[in-house]
Design goal:
- Helix content is 28%, strand content 25%.
- The chain has helices at residues 77-83, 120-133, 183-186, 190-202, 215-230, 251-265, 274-283, and strands spanning 6-12, 15-23, 63-68, 71-75, 90-98, 107-115, 135-143, 146-155, 158-164.
- The protein has a seven-stranded mixed β-barrel with strand order 1-2-6-9-8-7-5. The chain has a two-stranded antiparallel ribbon with strand order 3-4.
- A hairpin with a 2-residue loop joins strand 7 (135-143) and strand 8.
- Helix 5 packs across helix 6 and helix 5 crosses helix 7.
- By secondary structure, it is α+β, with helices and mostly antiparallel strands.
- The two termini are 24 Å apart.
């Protein structure tokens, strides 16, 4: 069973439902390290003073807010701590709105809501009440040290907590050149609109999210797999010599050896797919 990232209760009126939050997404982003071309050694980023060009130690770095170009005010960690919202461990419902009223652009990140011990009845009660009224609950919740606006949404047997973007976080679209709704002025004919509707109807099919894949990610993983398989075997380390220079580690060779050992351990199993091999590489 996955570990919850938050435990508390949903509060609406005088009702408190003990619940836990679980991540509903897994952002699988491929990451590359920056390497020195000549040695394939990782390159470390430095904190450099823009005026002097000198490296700055962590102990000498402070937080600053740029209120005008090149003009800053310093804010200390202690000052920020006094402003941190207190973790109340409550999803405090403030109001209920029609589900269709929330524009999709406000939805940011989903979490599964599951009842904890003693919360089953209240959980089911809230879920079914939201379904029958076609409403979602708007709430405030503190996760870690940040307060979020959120919507509690019924999805089948599940309650989903959707973190919402605040209005000020969305860019204004007023400056975009968007066609007006006067179709006649745009030269859109009724017959064209009918044909477009027929085309949409002909292309309708059930929503099956599992049939869609990130082709670019798959291509990258396949490229990495082929490079690992084609990489030369690792060079044996030299005999112990305290005066010898540090040995350059060839990451790709180590990955290749890891793949070979992994495959040897599973000779009786079916050969791994591109996705599973890449996932193993990512873990190594």
């Amino acid at each position: 069973m996955p570990r919850p990232i938050w435990k508390g209760a949903i509060s609406f009126g005088l009702v408190n439902v003990p619940v836990a939050l679980f991540p509903a997404e897994s952002r699988d982003t491929l990451r590359f390290r920056q390497l020195d071309r000549s040695t394939l050694s990782p390159v470390r980023e430095q904190r450099v003073n823009e005026q002097t060009g000198r490296e700055v130690a962590w102990a000498d770095i402070v937080k600053g807010y740029e209120y005008e170009p090149t003009h800053f005010v310093v804010v200390s960690d202690e000052e920020l701590e006094t402003l941190d919202p207190r973790a109340s461990h409550t999803i405090a419902i403030e109001t209920f709105v029609a589900a269709a009223e929330i524009d999709p652009q406000y939805y940011d990140r989903p979490y599964y809501v599951a009842p904890t011990r003693g919360g089953e009845k209240g959980y089911a009660l809230l879920r079914e009440a939201l379904k029958r009224s076609d409403r979602v609950a708007i709430a405030k919740v503190v996760i870690r040290t940040k307060e979020y606006l959120a919507a509690v949404v019924p999805v089948g047997k599940l309650l989903l907590l959707e973190l919402l973007r605040y209005a000020h976080e969305l860019r204004d679209s007023a400056d975009l050149e968007i066609p007006d709704t006067d179709l006649e002025a745009l030269g859109v004919k009724d017959k064209e609109l009918v044909l477009a509707e027929q085309l949409i109807a002909a292309m309708v099919e059930p929503w099956r999210p599992e049939q869609y894949r990130d082709g670019y990610r798959d291509d990258i993983l396949d490229l990495v797999r082929r490079k690992v398989e084609a990489a030369p075997p690792p060079t044996p380390p030299p005999e112990s010599d305290e005066t010898a220079p540090a040995q350059v580690i060839d990451i790709m060779s180590l990955l290749k050896e890891s793949v070979r050992r992994w495959q040897d351990e599973r000779t009786a199993a079916a050969p791994p797919t591109v996705g599973s091999t890449a996932a193993r590489l990512h873990e190594e």
